[in-house]
Design a protein that fits this description.
Elements: H1 5-16, H2 19-28, H3 34-68, H4 70-93, H5 114-148, H6 150-179, H7 182-193, H8 195-207, H9 213-242, H10 245-265
């Protein structure tokens, strides 16, 4: 497991910094392909949901049950799973709905008038801070998944990276429209993604003295709860908003199918 630390930090960093891709789309795309974005976000949700229930929850239960017994293991894992959901929900609850990065409009409107510049700039800065908070547990999820199984970590990192692209747009677009400064907007978007490797580092330093099969199993269930909440609260609603119900559903099914095949082949 210790051999995977470098890879875990690398994947977590790459997943987090995909917010920069979103910033690039906001700057250079004449018109964002929302149909593709909708399918991609549905795909990301499919990957996260399938990994959570088929891989993380199951492996977590096996690890814990082997040490505390099947009945106690079931209670521990279930508690850890819903704790992950609760923690993520509390973080989301702290975000005012009108400034929530996942409530951001499509951005097809022309640049704001002078009176709106200040509000847009504040909104962009606040959104960057909020996304940093949201990315913190995602960094822990990617890192711990890679630490246990590099192939699992790659799958989680891919799903998180897709999820972070529209977040990069949400940070960079208002700052760019308010200031006209691409560099400033890009760096705020870039910095918001750094919360993921920071979250990974903090989580690892806290858990490292206690790492054993039970702790790892519980952390897997906790991570599964995080990813389930992100999928149903953020990814799927946004996928339908940017595209259509069926397009997001097709992406969801495709994400599950790809993960199912990759797990069978591995």
């Amino acid at each position: 497991m210790e051999d995977n630390i470098t890879l875990a930090f690398l994947l977590t960093t790459l997943a987090g910094l995909s917010t920069a891709i979103g910033a690039g789309i906001a700057f250079f795309a004449k018109k964002t392909n929302y149909k593709l974005l909708s399918t991609a976000m549905g795909f990301s949700a499919g990957v996260m949901i399938y990994i959570s229930f088929v891989e993380l929850f199951a492996e977590g239960y096996d690890s814990v049950a082997a040490h505390v017994g099947e009945d106690a293991g079931a209670w521990y894992i279930t508690g850890a799973f819903f704790a992950g959901i609760l923690v993520t929900a509390l973080i989301d609850k702290l975000v005012p709905s009108f400034e929530n990065p996942h409530e951001f409009d499509k951005g097809d409107e022309p640049p704001a008038e002078e009176a709106q510049y200040k509000h847009l700039y504040r909104m962009g800065i606040f959104t960057a801070l909020v996304i940093g908070i949201h990315n913190f547990p995602e960094g822990i999820a990617t890192f711990m998944g890679t630490l246990k199984d590099p192939q699992l970590g790659i799958s989680i990192a891919m799903a998180v990276a897709i999820h972070n692209i529209p977040e990069g747009i949400a940070v960079s677009a208002p700052i760019f429209y308010a200031t006209g400064n691409k560099k400033k907007a890009f760096w705020f978007s870039f910095a918001s993604g750094l919360a993921e490797p920071v979250g990974a580092a903090v989580g690892f330093l806290i858990l490292r003295p206690f790492l054993n099969e039970v702790v790892i199993g519980l952390s897997f269930a906790f991570i599964a709860g995080i990813m389930i909440f992100i999928s149903f609260d953020q990814l799927l609603p946004a996928a339908q908003k940017y595209g259509s119900h069926h397009r997001s559903l097709y992406g969801l099914i495709a994400g599950m199918a790809v993960m199912a095949i990759s797990l069978i082949l591995s």
